Amino acid sequence: MRKLLDWKALLTSLCGVFMVVGMILPTSVFPYLSVLTGSYFAVGAAWRSLKERSLDVNMLMVIAAAGAVAVGHPMEAAILLFLFSLSSTLESFAMARTRSAIEGLVKLRPTEAIRIDATGERRVPVSSLQPGDRVRVLAFESVPIDGEVVSGSSSIDQSAMTGESEPIPKLSGDLVFAGTQNLEGMLVVQVTAPSGATTLDRIVELVREAQENKASGERISDWFGQRYTYFVLSAAAASLLIRYLAGQASSDAIYASLTLLVALSPCAVVISTPASTLSAIAWAARQGILIRGGEFIETAGVVDLIALDKTGTLTEGKPQLVEICVCSQHVGVAVGAECMGEGACWRAGKEFSSEAASWLSLAAAVEQFSEHPLAQAIVRAARERDLSIPVATEHWSVAGMGVEAVIEGKRVRVGQRRMFDSPESPLREEVARHMESMQREGMTVALLECEGEWTAFGLRDEPRPKSKALVEKVRSLGAKKVVMLTGDTAETARAVAAEVGIEDVHAGLMPEEKATLLRNYRQSGYRVMMVGDGINDAPSLTVADLGVAMGGLGSDIALNAADVVLMRDKLEGIDQLLRLGRSTTQIIRSNLYFATAVIVALAISTQVLGPLAPQLKTWALPLAVVGHEGSTVLVILNGLRLLSGPKR
Question: What pLDDT, on a 0 to 100 scale, did the predictor assign at position 180?
Answer without folding.
Answer: 86
